[in-house]
Design brief:
Shape: globular
Strand order of the largest sheet: 1-2
Largest sheet: 2 strands, antiparallel
Strand content: under 5%
Number of strands: 2
Structural class: mainly alpha
Helix content: 55-70%
Distance between the termini: 87 Å
Length: about 600
């Protein structure tokens, strides 16, 4: 009977251990096998067996006596050796030289976007880029290039190349895109740089389990957080006692304390230790990636006094956090859409979710109701009234551009009419923000009948963004009239216009040079950067051109982008068959200044 008790206990231990081991294997990305430990025969006197029927199935040992030791030896001491570790089969290994999710040919980048450019040079440009950049459409194009499935350029470690791409995506606010790239590299090939970027990606995605496959690297390269990561991963692997002990040890001797330790303890508790952690935000004066990631992963929203001054990248991370409700994500989603992280459709979907969850009696007072009216209002006046109210409510540049992008499709539903000249600039800007260039071009005839102020704004956007330039006036007299009425400081808007027009080939270099000299626009200025992007474009290196374009727009204010930069950016994109992005960036420049 004692042998029966031993076997039942051993079977229970194995049954409990197997799921935990399997879960740990999935998290680390490395297979592992449990080696059973020989069990010592207990010395306590066995208790009498109850007459009740047990619901737990057991092995039939009726033929063995209580003192029969052969059964114990057969089942516990003489187990076969564990199977050898399972290795990745060759066909399951992923090529670290070719990593990405988007087809470069379908994107128009060609089959070799980097060409012969040095990977060391590109990595340096990407690492030093001050993100985010001025252009929403430039952001979208650069993100697509970084996500393209292309071979790593020469003279760079391929895994470090993925790390550089992922790190730039994170600094652009693209948490999901960075995670996709990192997931395409086998964990056992991670370099120190890749481990560090992987940690940042896990926090940006509010995904603590994503830290667990990185534990071996974290123990080497991220000493400050290794104890807390180990505790969280132990808890997530079904080892609550070990997790609790490690948290206690970290509290006594760890490098991290205060709210950073409490947030790790909260993750540990949420995974099943039963140990609660009370989070007090009052002593906290800033929101770091660690604090954001761990708090958001447990459904917590930090106070507004920490969220509002946080970086726009962190706000973009919050916008896509799945643990938060649409209402909780809305303000940050407007920033994400203004940057280019969210599409116009993503914003429509978010407002639709808010609309569906709002009580009918409260709907007329909400922005979600106004969004609906902008699309399906009973008449043009109703749609325009909603359009104006939404745009007037978005005062800051990023939310305003986000609202434009979201309403782009609604703007296409308004028929062109010269009588709408007060609304036309925003309608046309919205269509270009959402990419509806052909619908915007339908306004060309109506714009010719508008007054100078509204007519100039609309004409400039159409002159740059329309795919078909037919019916648009590019004469010297029309351009001179725009420049003479331009009230921007140092005629910055005129410099952007002339630079983009010559970059797109819609006026000749001689005309652009004459205008630049006459008005002091500086469109023809040369620098090492202009020569580099021109050379990359001449060699057909579309990806290199986009990285250099990002470096030429390292500001959040379009008025700080020189006209000469826009000229070379647009010309480089057009020359590498990225005409659509060239036109959208150019139209955006005039819409946002």
């Amino acid at each position: 009977m004692r042998t029966r008790s031993i076997l039942i206990a051993g079977a229970a231990l194995i049954a409990v251990a197997i799921p935990a081991v399997a879960q740990q294997a999935l998290q680390t990305g490395q297979p592992s096998a449990a080696t059973p430990t020989p069990t010592t025969t207990p010395t306590t006197t066995p208790q009498p067996v109850s007459n009740s029927v047990s619901a737990t199935p057991t092995t039939d040992l009726s033929s063995a006596s209580e003192g029969d030791s052969s059964v114990t030896e057969l089942n516990l001491d003489n187990l076969p050796p564990p199977p050898p570790p399972v290795e990745y089969p060759a066909q399951a290994r992923r090529d670290p030289f070719v990593v990405g999710r988007l087809d470069p040919l379908k994107l128009g980048f060609g089959d070799n976007p980097w060409g012969g450019t040095s990977g060391t040079f590109l990595s340096s440009l990407m690492r030093r880029m001050d993100a985010p950049i001025a252009s929403r459409w430039g952001h979208i194009a650069l993100r697509d290039a970084l996500l393209a499935k292309t071979r790593a350029p020469r003279s760079v470690n391929p895994v470090d190349w993925v790390a550089e791409r992922s790190w730039l995506l994170l600094r652009l606010g693209e948490a999901d895109a960075a995670r996709m790239l990192i997931a395409d590299v086998d964990a056992d090939r991670f370099t120190p740089k890749m481990v560090q970027v992987g940690v940042q990606s896990a926090l940006a995605n509010a995904d603590p389990p994503a830290l667990c496959p990185l534990e071996p690297g974290i123990r080497k390269y991220e000493l400050g957080i290794r104890a807390l990561v180990s505790a969280m991963c132990a808890s997530l692997s079904g080892e609550p006692e070990s997790a609790a002990a490690q948290i206690d040890d970290a509290r006594r001797r760890g490098r991290v304390g205060g709210i950073d330790l409490l947030l790790a303890q909260k993750v540990v508790g949420a995974a099943g230790t039963g140990r609660a952690a009370t989070i007090e935000w009052d002593p906290v004066d800033n929101l770091t990636g660690w604090r954001f990631g761990l708090a958001t992963s447990t459904g917590m929203v930090p106070p507004d006094r920490l969220i509002k001054p946080a970086s726009v990248q962190l706000r973009a991370f919050q916008a896509r956090a799945p643990m938060l409700s649409p209402d909780q994500r809305l303000d940050s989603a407007q920033i994400a859409a203004g940057l280019g992280v969210f599409s116009s459709q993503s914003m429509i979907d978010l407002y639709s979710a808010i609309y569906d969850s709002t009580d009918n009696s409260d709907l007329p007072t909400t922005d979600a109701w106004q969004v609906r009216q902008a699309f399906v209002g009973k008449d043009r006046d109703t749609k325009l009234a909603a359009f104006r109210k939404l745009l007037d409510g978005a005062k800051n540049p990023l939310p305003h551009e986000a609202m434009r992008a979201m309403l782009g499709r609604a703007a296409t539903l308004i028929e062109p009419d010269a009588k709408l000249e007060s609304d036309a600039p925003e309608l046309i800007a919205s269509m270009f923000a959402a990419g509806y260039d052909r619908a915007a071009a339908r306004w060309a005839t109506a714009v010719r009948r508008m007054s100078d102020s509204s007519g100039d704004r609309c004409w400039a956007m159409l002159a740059l963004g329309a795919s078909n330039a037919a019916g648009i006036d590019f004469s010297n007299s029309r351009i001179n009239a725009f420049i003479s009425r331009d009230q921007s400081k140092d005629k910055t808007r005129s410099a952007l216009l002339v630079g983009a027009l010559v970059g797109l080939g819609r006026i000749s270099p001689a005309t652009a040079d004459s205008l630049s000299r006459r008005y002091g626009l500086g469109v023809g200025r040369q620098s090492e950067w202009t020569r580099t992007i021109d050379g990359a474009a001449a060699r057909g290196q579309s990806g290199t051109v986009l990285v250099l374009a990002g470096t030429g727009m390292q500001t959040q204010d379009w008025l700080q982008v020189p006209g000469s930069h826009l000229f070379h950016i647009v010309a480089g994109l057009a020359r590498t068959r990225q005409d659509y992005f060239a036109r959208m960036i150019a139209a955006e420049a005039l819409a946002r200044t």
